[in-house]
Amino acid sequence: MITALSYIVVQTPHMQAWIDQVTHHIGMQVEVLEAGKTMRVRADEKIQRFVVCATSGEPTMGMGFEVPDAQTLMRCSMALEAAGYKTTPGTPEEIELRGVQDMMHFKDNDGVRLEIACGLKDAPTAFKPGRPIGGFRTGPMGLGHVAFITEHFEAISNLYRNVLGMNLTDYTDKPFKVEFLHCNPRHHTIGIAHTGQPAKIYHLMLEYNDFDDLGRAYDMALPNPDSIGVTLGRHINDHATSFYLKNPDGWMFELGWATRTVGPDWEVEELKGMSLWGHDRTWLPDHKREEARQILKHLAAEGMRAPVVLPENQTQLKRTAKE
Q1: Per-residue pLDDT tens digits for 102-141
Q2: Does domain 4-302 sit in CATH 3.10.180.10?
C-alpha cells in the first residue's frame, strides 16, 4: 500500500547543530518556522522532507510514508487496526506542519512513531541547496531509505511486508541479520536489522545526483574523524558508494551515490555480506568488526565486482565541468 518514504519527523535538543549540518555539510535547505522551535528541511521541490521540532527531552526520529490517495490511506488504517496497531488521525496542526492532504500515525513494536500520509505538497519556490550541489535523487522513489535495529525482528518484518505491503529485496545473516525491503524501484526503502543491540534508528540514506558532491561531503567530514560512523565504501546489494555521517542526535546519515533499482522481475537474493569494500563500521563490537573485515577479504579474493549504473537524472552527464 505504501509507495515511498516521504519524510521524517525529528524531535531534537540540538536545533542549531541540525541547521548547521543539514545546510552547510549535507547541502539541504532549511525553512525556520519558529526560531529555536520548529523548522522544515527541503531536499527537492517538495515543501519538506524533514520536519524538525525542538525538545528538552531525548531525541527521537519517526518516519512518514506515502500512499497515493485518501482511499488508500483509509485501507491502510483498517489493515493496521486489524493487525493490532492502534491508529490515530493527524491533527489539523500536524497536517499543516507537514504540508500534506491527510495523515494518520501509529507506533510500531519498538515504539517508533510511523506516519502514513497522502498529498505532500510542492513548495512555492525552487529548491535552494545550502551549499553548491546538483541535488538529491528523490522523485517517485521518495526521500531515500531508513535502516534501523529492532528487538522485534519477526513482528517488524511482518508489519512492513504483510500489513504495509512492502516486498523483500534481499537479506543476509552476516555479520548480522538484515532484511531489505522495497515498495518502488529504489532498491530498498527499509532495512531491518537484528544485531543483539537495543532498538534504535541506525541511519537515513540520502542519495546525491553527483559523485563529486558525495566526495566533498566526505572531505568535509575527514577533519573530524569521530563524525564518521562508517567509512567510505560500496554496498554489495544496492551498489551505493557511500559513507555514514553521525548527526547531532547520535544516529547517522548515509550519504551515497548511484544506487541500482529493482523491477517487477526482481529475484530475492541471499547476500554474502554487507559491502564490497570499505564501510568499516566503527560502532560494531570488535569480534563483529573483524568478521566484517574477513568477509571483505573473501569477496576480494573472489574478485566480486559490480557495475556502476548511473541514474537517469544524473546531472553531471548534462553539463561540462567548470574549469
Answers
A1: 999 999 999 999 999 999 999 999 999 999 999 999 999 9
A2: yes
Distances in Å between the Cα of 186 and the Cα atoms of 44, 61, 98, 114, 168 are 17, 22, 23, 20, 12
Q: Which amino acid is at 253?
A: F
User: CB within 8 A of 286, min separation 6: which ones?
Assistant: none
Q: Which residue has the cell 549540518?
A: 21
- What are the domain boundaries of the chain? 4-302
- Report the candidate in 190, 181, 165 with the shortest Cα–Cα distance to residue 67: 165
pTM for the complete prediction?
0.94
CA 62/CA 252 separation, integer angstroms = 14
| Cβ contact 40:33 at 8 Å | yes
Whether residue 136 contacts residue 208, with contact meaning beta carbons closer than 8 Å, is answered with yes
| pLDDT one-digit tens code per residue, 160-176 | 999 999 999 999 987 77
Nearest to 258 by CA among 191, 190, 306, 192: 306
Q: Where are the beta strands (DSSP E) in 163-294?
A: 167-172, 177-182, 190-194, 200-208, 228-235, 241-246, 252-257, 269-270, 275-278
Angle 176-63-126 from CA coordinates, rounded to 5° = 120
Q: Which of 154, 136, 156 is nearest to 144 (CA)?
A: 136
